[in-house]
C-alpha cells in the first residue's frame, strides 16, 4: 500500500513538472524567436566594422605582368576607411605585394582575423586590387584572384577561387553584411594599362552575389577591361569610387555612390581611351536599408591583446604618425632606427636660401649622413612601417640622392609629389636627379615649378657636383 501511494505521488510530481515545463516552452520559444528576429533584422544598426584590403602590383612569377597602381589603390582605400569612414585601425588589415600570398589572404579571412572577430550585425568590407582570371578560362567555370605567389598556369592550386572566398564568408564569418569590392579586372589584356593577363572577360557581379548572398561590386562588366588611369596614379574605378563615397559629406548610401562612380568611370574611359568601355557593376542579394560605409559602429569592440599577438604583421605596423598600433609581433621603430632615419633630415622641410641668395644643388645638400648605407636600410624599414606618411619616403629619397642612386630616388620622389604636390623641396630634389640623368629640360622645368610653388625659393639656382 505504501509503495502504491509513493508511486502515485511520484507520478503526480511528474505530471506537475511536465505541465510546468510545457507551460514555459511557448514563452521561451517566443523569447528565442524574438532574439533571432532581432539578430536577422536587415534594418538593425551596424554593430561593428571590419575590413581586409589586398593590393598587388608586383608578383613573384615573371609570367604575371606587374601593375602600376594596385598597391596605391589599396593604400588609398585603407586611408579612406580609417580617416573618413569611421573604421578602427585595429579593425582593418592590409596585405600588399609580397605579404598578399594565398596563405595569408585565406588566413586573414579565416581563423586569424575576420572569422575570429566578426559577429552577427557587423559590416565587413573586402577590397581586392590585383590581376585575376575569369571563369571563361577555367574548365569548371571558376573565377580566381591572382595572389603574389600565384602560378598563372596552376591557379586552382596557387590562386584564390572566388568560390573559396564565398565559402569562407559563409562557413567561417558570422556576419551577413559583407561588401566585396573587386578592382581586379579579369579581362586579361596585353595592354600594360589594363588589369588582367588574358583577353577574355571580367567577373560577373551577379553570379558572385548569388553565390555569396552579399553585395558585390566589380570594376567592369564581364566583357570589358578595367583600366589604370592616364590622369592620376590610381585605377580609374578605385579613384572614382572613393571620390563618390566622399560626396554628400561622406554620408552617401553605397548604392548612390556606386551610381555616381559608374558614370565617372564610363566618362573618363570613353574620353581617354577611344573605343574602350568600362562600366562597373553592382549586384546585391540582401534586403534592408542601403549601407552608408561611413556610419559609426553602434557597439565597436576592442580587439583583445591575445588576438593582436596571434596576428602576423601586415603591410602596416604603425598605421600613421597619429595612430600608434602594434599588430602581431610587428614592433614599433626602435629609437636607434628613428635616429638614423631622421638623421637624413639635417635641415627643416623648407631650408632654401632667400630669393636673392644663390643656391647650389648637390647630392650632399639634401643629405650628408656619415653612414648613408646604414641610414638607407633604416629608412626603408621606416617607410615600410609608415607607408602612408610621405615624410618617411622623403627621407629615403634624400639618402638615395646622397648615394647618387638617381633612378631609385626618382621613384620615391614621384610618390612624394603625388601625396604633396605643393612641396617645393620635392621638385628641387627631382631636378637634381634629372640633371644627373642628362634630362636637362625636365630639370629646368622642376626648378621653375619649385620657384612657382614657393616664392621664397632662390631665383639663382645652379647644379654642383
Can you offer a commentary on this structure?
The protein is α/β, with parallel strands linked by helices. The chain folds into two domains: 49-306, Rossmann fold, CATH 3.40.50.1460; 335-463, Tetratricopeptide repeat domain (Serine Threonine Protein Phosphatase 5, Tetratricopeptide repeat). The protein has helices at 2-40, 70-84, 102-109, 114-117, 155-158, 162-171, 205-212, 236-246, 254-272, 305-310, 335-343, 363-366, 372-385, 390-402, 406-419, 424-436, 440-453; strands at residues 49-55, 92-96, 123-129, 132-133, 144-145, 160-161, 177-182, 215-218, 281-284, 358-361, 460-463. Helix 2 (70-84) links the parallel strand 1 and strand 2 (92-96). Helix 2 (70-84) runs parallel beside helix 8 (236-246) and helix 16 packs antiparallel against helix 17. The chain is globular and about 65 Å long.
Describe this structure in a few short sentences.
The chain is an alpha/beta fold.
Task: Enter the CATH topology name of the largest domain.
Answer: Rossmann fold
Tally of DSSP helical segments: 17
Tell me the count of domains: 2
| Approximate helicity band | 40-55%
Mean pLDDT: 76
Could you give the count of β-strands? Answer: 11
SSE string, helices as H and strands as E: HEHEHHEEEHEHEHEHHEHHEHHHHHHE
> What fraction of residues sit in β-strands?
5-15%
Radius of gyration: 28 Å
Name the CATH architecture of the largest domain: 3-Layer(aba) Sandwich
Described by the principal axes of the CA atoms, the overall outline is globular
Amino acid at each position: 500500500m505504501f509503495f502504491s501511494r509513493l508511486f502515485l505521488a511520484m507520478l503526480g510530481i511528474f505530471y506537475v513538472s511536465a505541465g510546468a515545463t510545457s507551460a514555459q516552452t511557448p514563452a521561451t520559444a517566443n523569447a528565442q524567436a524574438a532574439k533571432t528576429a532581432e539578430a536577422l533584422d536587415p534594418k538593425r544598426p551596424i554593430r561593428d566594422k571590419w575590413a581586409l584590403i589586398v593590393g598587388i602590383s608586383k608578383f613573384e612569377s615573371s609570367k604575371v605582368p606587374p601593375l602600376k597602381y594596385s598597391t596605391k589603390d589599396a593604400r588609398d582605400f585603407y586611408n579612406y576607411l580609417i580617416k573618413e569612414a569611421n573604421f578602427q585601425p585595429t579593425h582593418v588589415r592590409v596585405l600588399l605585394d609580397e605579404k598578399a600570398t594565398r596563405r595569408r589572404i585565406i588566413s586573414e579571412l579565416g581563423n586569424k582575423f575576420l572569422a575570429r572577430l566578426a559577429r552577427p550585425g557587423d559590416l565587413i568590407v573586402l577590397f581586392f586590387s590585383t590581376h585575376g582570371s575569369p571563369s571563361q578560362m577555367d574548365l569548371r567555370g571558376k573565377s580566381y584572384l591572382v595572389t603574389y605567389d600565384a602560378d598563372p598556369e596552376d591557379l586552382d592550386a596557387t590562386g584564390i577561387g572566388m568560390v573559396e572566398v564565398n565559402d569562407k564568408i559563409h562557413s567561417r564569418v558570422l556576419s551577413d553584411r559583407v561588401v566585396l569590392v573587386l578592382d581586379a579586372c579579369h579581362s586579361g589584356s596585353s595592354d600594360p594599362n589594363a588589369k588582367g593577363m588574358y583577353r577574355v572577360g571580367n567577373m560577373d557581379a551577379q553570379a558572385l552575389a548569388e553565390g555569396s548572398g552579399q553585395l558585390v561590386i566589380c570594376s567592369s562588366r564581364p566583357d570589358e577591361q578595367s583600366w589604370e588611369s592616364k590622369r592620376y596614379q590610381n585605377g580609374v574605378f578605385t579613384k572614382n569610387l572613393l571620390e563618390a563615397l566622399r560626396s554628400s559629406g561622406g554620408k552617401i548610401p553605397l548604392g548612390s555612390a556606386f551610381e555616381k562612380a559608374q558614370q565617372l568611370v564610363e566618362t573618363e574611359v570613353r574620353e581617354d581611351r577611344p573605343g574602350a568601355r568600362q562600366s562597373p557593376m553592382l549586384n546585391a542579394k540582401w534586403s534592408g536599408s542601403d549601407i552608408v560605409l561611413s556610419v559609426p559602429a553602434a557597439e565597436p569592440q576592442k580587439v583583445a591583446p591575445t588576438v593582436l599577438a596571434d596576428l602576423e604583421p601586415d603591410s602596416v605596423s604603425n598605421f600613421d604618425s597619429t595612430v600608434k598600433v602594434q599588430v602581431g609581433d610587428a614592433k614599433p621603430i626602435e629609437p636607434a632606427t628613428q635616429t638614423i632615419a631622421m638623421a637624413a633630415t639635417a635641415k627643416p622641410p623648407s631650408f632654401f636660401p632667400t630669393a636673392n641668395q644663390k643656391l647650389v644643388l648637390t647630392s650632399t645638400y639634401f643629405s650628408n649622413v656619415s653612414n648613408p648605407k646604414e641610414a638607407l636600410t633604416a629608412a626603408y624599414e621606416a617607410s615600410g612601417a609608415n607607408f602612408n606618411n610621405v615624410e618617411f619616403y622623403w627621407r629615403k629619397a634624400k639618402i638615395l640622392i646622397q648615394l647618387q642612386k638617381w633612378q631609385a630616388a626618382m621613384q620615391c620622389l614621384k610618390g612624394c609629389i603625388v601625396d604633396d604636390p605643393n612641396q617645393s623641396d620635392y621638385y628641387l630634389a627631382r631636378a637634381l636627379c634629372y640633371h644627373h640623368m642628362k634630362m636637362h629640360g625636365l630639370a629646368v622645368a622642376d626648378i621653375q615649378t619649385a620657384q612657382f610653388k614657393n616664392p621664397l625659393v632662390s631665383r639663382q639656382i645652379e647644379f654642383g657636383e
